[in-house]
Records
---
Amino acid sequence: MRRAVLAAFIALLTFGGDALADNFPSRPITIIVPFSAGGPSDAMARILAERMKATLGETILIENVTGAGGSIGVGRAVRSPPDGYTVSFGHLGTHVANGAVYKLGYDLVTDLEPVALLPSNPMIVVSKNAVPAKSLKELLAWLKAKPAAATAGTAGAGSGSHIAGLYFESVTGIKLQYVPYRGTGPAMNDLVAGQIDLIIDQTSNSITQVRAGTIRAYAVTDAKRVESASDIPTTDEAGLPGFHMTLWSGLWVPKGTPKDIVAKLNASAVDALNDPAVRKQLENLGLQMPPKDQLAPEALGAWQKAEIAKWWPLIKAANVKVD
Ligand code: MLT
């Protein structure tokens, strides 16, 4: 292993990135998922990795490096060698919101190279079954009447489920008491067990439990219903017009990774998104494919900057306290 890295490094010095790119990949690639195994980010990364390993001809390992709303896992990727063998999986929370919540010690735009925009996930308002509400309007009334703030599970400050909560609070004026987990996978276990009241979750994480009847869904935060869960109304239909949020995901690599390697990783991710079996798996979870003209690495870079401009003011206004 050390000999291979050394050889690759000497090749880089002698022939530049080209040699690295030509031989890429020549050993397993690691995708760092900054949230718990079994959650929505983990599920999407594993489905894509299964197909990407076929096109890249190398094993792809998923490493769950959790904590601090995903910022620890992203930090690990930022500090990794820029050789394409460490890929950062993330989303609106980890690669946009966290920059407005934490003193990260790295820059989300200049310390990472965008690789590919991945599917997006309409958020969904779900609660434990014991909540005495059968519609979004009844849920809002229950939340407003509740003497103490309802407990809302999140994947930590800055995570998608937390940002959705802040947005919900800003739109409804209802205060929530956040209960942080290392991912919405473990948060879901507590929701099913009735330990917490609600999650504003990614549809892909809740849909299986909703179908099983172990939790209750009220609305999806999108202008249109989710095809694979068309019985669940939109927030517009359910009485919270305009409360729209979809959580988009993406892949990044450390700054300085040779362009040819970024191109190979991008081509492999795009191939996976175009694979009918992969699409079926992702769409069955309620995930929406990125637009065809948004699949180049630069498209993710431009989108990330636009989302930073859109979300940072709301997040900073919420004055999120993190230790
Ligand atoms: C997860 O995989 O747990 C999520 O992406 C967490 C979140 O951001 O809500």
Note: The first strand starts at residue 29 and ends at 33.
---
Amino acid sequence: MENNIRKIGVFTSGGDAPGMNAAIRAVVRACTYYKKDAYGIMRGYEGMIEGDLVKLGARSVGNIIQRGGTILKSARSEEFRTAEGRKKAYENLKAEGIEALVAIGGDGTFTGLHKFYEEYRVPSVCIPGTIDNDLPGTDYTIGYDTATNTAVEAIDRIRDTALSHNRLFFVEVMGRNSGYIAINSGIAGGATGIVIPEENMSFDQLYNLLGADKETSKKSNLIVVAEGSKIGDANTLARKVAERSSYFDIKVTILGHLQRGGAPTYFDRVLASKMGIAAVEGLMQGQKDVMVGIKDNKIVYNDFNTIMAQKHHEIDSESLRIAKILSI
Ligand code: F6P
């Protein structure tokens, strides 16, 4: 492995995700293992612009693998979108002698870092950390498994009360433009219907799933709605059903940010640990403008331009097929 790089900066940016701390820990400990200095950059690009850097050692990342959120804090920086902002950031890194970067975040984070690489040629590796699982080039992003498990737990609880009162519940889950959390929490939670942006389900098709006009109709129903739904959010869909039929006693629950917190699952901790080490080793091998991913359980390095050209992480058709059969 090439060993020229001596100081590596690590930061988290965009929406936090459970497992980010495990990734920070892995990056810092891999640096220690390979005798590199690790610097934490606080609040993502904001801290880079302000020069808010903190030296990290193996012990400073103890007792964080199980914690949600991010010890480095996170932000969405408007200033880094400007050339002046990026110049300030570069000058701060240079002043501290930081020669390479590891970013943990989502597509907004990576787009910023790619631009930065093109301008200043600071070797950079991105680690996909977002609950949305919306990045191509990896089967899983850090935080997605935890968030989906959290959603399933919530759906199970809602089901108890839905059944007790014969109610129709619309449960809205996060995911931005991606239906990953919805499709898999919906399948695992036994939802009657799952509304995701990737599938062209019409409102009529959804309404028919409820079986309001049939004698066989279910007494209680639970519909999982992805926040990126193209036929309306949970409140809108609930209102439209109520307008069409008085058969249902309807309630809406929006899970929101509770899906972002909490202890990461074992899966996210291990994924984050693998990716954190891979990021440092990638830099040592000369990777420069890439995103680490996991494909068929193997670490891969994706060229940034290839990733961005793909735009979206498709939902596999098998999941859609399964959801359809089970909603009968
Ligand atoms: O990208 C992660 C995510 O939680 C999305 O699922 C959601 O749409 C968004 O961030 C919410 O962002 P914020 O925390 O800024 O409201």
Note: The chain has two domains: 7-143+264-309, 147-260.
---
Amino acid sequence: MEVVDKTKIKGGPIGVLLILSTIALLLGSVFVWSYVSRSVDDQRKIEFQRVVGMTEERVQDTLHMLVERLYDLRGFVSTGGINSERWINYLTSIEVEDRYPGMYTFAYAPVVERNKLESFISKIKNEEKSKEYQEYSVFPETQTPEVVPVRYLYTSDPDIGSLLGYDITTSENQVIALKKAVADDVPAITNLLHIGLVLPGNTKTGYVIMLPVYSKIDIVNYPKEERRQYFMGLVGTWVFPQGLLSHVDIEEELMAKEVSLTVFDGEDKPISLGNNGGDLRAVREINLLDKKFRFEFIGKRQKILDQFTESLPWLTLGGLIIINLMWTATVTSILLSRREAEKLAVEATKDLRKFKQAVEGVSDMVTITDENGVITYVNGMAEKITGYKKEMMLGKTPRLWGRQMDEEFYKNFWKRIKEDKKPFWGEVINKRRNGELYEAEVNISPILDDSGKLLFFVSIERDLTKAKAIEKIKTEFISLASHQLRTPLSAMKWFGKMLISGDAGDLNPMQKEYVEKIYESNEREIRLVNSLLNVSKIESGKILVEPRLTDLTRLISSVMTDFRLEAGELGKKLTAVIDKKIPKIYIDEDQIRQVYANLISNAVRYTKKGGVISVKVYLSKNFIMTEIKDNGIGIPKREQKRVFDKFFRASNALKIETDGTGLGLFLSKTIVESSGGKMGFRSSEGKGSTFWFTLPVKTKN
Ligand code: ADP
């Protein structure tokens, strides 16, 4: 059992690692968060640009298609022979309404000489039956040699519809575009037009794109300078910025993302306003013929991406904070429990050291072995007792110094501690390294775990050599002293007897009384010395049982005679009932006589005046039972277990009878047991006692 002396488990590398990992996690979290935020930012920009790009593309497409429609329309008009019905049919057939939902306006305005204006109008009224044509007039009225009135109109806008008959030459803005268109045979666009100028109160603004119409269908095959002579009018379309976006999906997309669009004309005047405010901005320049429009897109950062993507950085941040908190909590608890463990370890080590010091220091030999008896620990005393060094004992079994008892002993011993798992206690003989045999008292305990499994054995061995030696000296001393005392006591006894019997002359009554007292005291002294001698004989093993065939009935009767007189004098009754069938048996007569004498004298002594003492002897199976019953003072319950101890005297007995040695019962029991019998008693304080003993029926030696 090596006590590991590591009272301080260093916080060292694991603590540092934990702290470093926490820092790394924090830095990692910051990185992840900024990465996610940045990529969401990028995605947002890309998405915004996509919306802007798509819008731009759709606007370009729309413009392009509008111009194409104008070319188609001029081809149609050039064929001649059209009326309002065919005009409408044509435009319907090219699906104008579907392609430009809510934004279409197409018109044809022929060039009419002023002097033919009347016939032009009356011709219309003849040809066209509808109400609007019956009210057809050219307006506003001017005196220019040529007018260019709107003859056909196909529009989704009722305001524009009321411009049927409008003479476009009355608008300088339109005349400039007209001239440019006719001069180069190109689609030309006007500057910003305010409808309010023609229709008071109307706030609409927009542009007209116009394209000259010639009486030749294949006009493109003619050189440009020749085309003028075939010029017959203009086809035109009305353009306003919102209209350019009226492709349903585009508007919806813009609205969904809350992207507002402001369109500025060539002079940077806003012509359509829809600014909702926002922090994303993109500008696109879109050419509409020779006119430059600026489209300004403003978007709101949070509206571009879907809710989930937008909240991704915050979700990430929340997640990272939770992970960080959890990690911090884990690290803290690890560090705390490490500290706790360190504390416990320090305490445990201290305890263990104290324990080890204590075990090392005890005056008994302590051995710990595994379940097979292999030694795992021995204390310092083991070296002193056995003479072997610790290193020699560890890994070996206690046979090293044992093996002096017979085989049977060790078999029983192992069965008890290993199989029955019970502690063993006993005296054994062992052998020191120097070959000397020694007696030892051994106490071996099997140590079990909670489930009853055998873990190891702890053995405590006490070397009895010294104790036995002291005991021997003591016994020898008592024996010697008793012998020395007995001689003068015997002398005193005989001289006393002679004085009393008058061998040395008559004594006067007072002298006689004094000598008798001396004689009695001397008798007591002799009894004590005899008892002491017997005890010392027993302890030195010198008590010898010398069995002789004995008539027990006679023996008892003689003892009874000895005591009856004394009992009678003290006013106590002594009776005996002895079984007639009791055979002669082999016993040490002198010693058994002493047992009867002891027990009967006790019964007489510890009974008050008027007490009754009955002796009963009977044969039972293969032993003879003797019971000596009295109705005396009894023995107090709590003192009963010490009754057969050497020098025991009960507290109640001490009060009434100071004269006693406390050796009688000890001797009696020893004698009975060495004769092969047993001794016991029952007693109740104040009521009486019954001492009993058995003797084997031994009729042959
Ligand atoms: P002793 O009689 O000399 O004291 P014993 O060994 O004979 O020594 O008896 C021991 C003690 O046991 C007595 O002192 C007494 O207290 C108690 N004892 C023995 N016999 C009786 C008895 N019959 N009744 C009561 N106490 C008894």
Note: Residues 548-696 form a domain with the Heat Shock Protein 90 fold (CATH 3.30.565.10).
